[in-house]
Amino acid sequence: MTSFFSIFLLPIALIAVTIVLMLGLLNMMRGGSPNTSQRLMRLRVLLQFIAIIIAMLAIWAMGR
C-alpha cells in the first residue's frame, strides 16, 4: 500500500498540480480571462490539497 501511494499516486498528483500551475501562468502572461485564472487557481488549490493528503497517507502507511 505504501508503494502505491508514494510511487504512483503522489507523482501523478504533483504532475497535475504543475500542469494547472503552468496553465494559469500562461493564461496570466497572455492576458487571458480573469474567470479562467480564478478557475485554474481554485483547481490548483484543490489539487495541492489532494497531493498533501496523498503524501500524508504515504507517510502514515510507512509508519505502520
From TrEMBL:
It comes from the Bacteria. Gene3D superfamilies: 6.10.140.1320. This is HIG1 domain-containing protein. The keyword Transmembrane applies. It comes from Afipia carboxidovorans (strain ATCC 49405 / DSM 1227 / KCTC 32145 / OM5) (Oligotropha carboxidovorans). The chain crosses the membrane at residues 6-25, 45-63. NCBIfam families: twin_helix. Residues 1-64 form the HIG1 domain. It holds the Pfam family HIG_1_N. Keywords: Membrane, Transmembrane, Transmembrane helix.
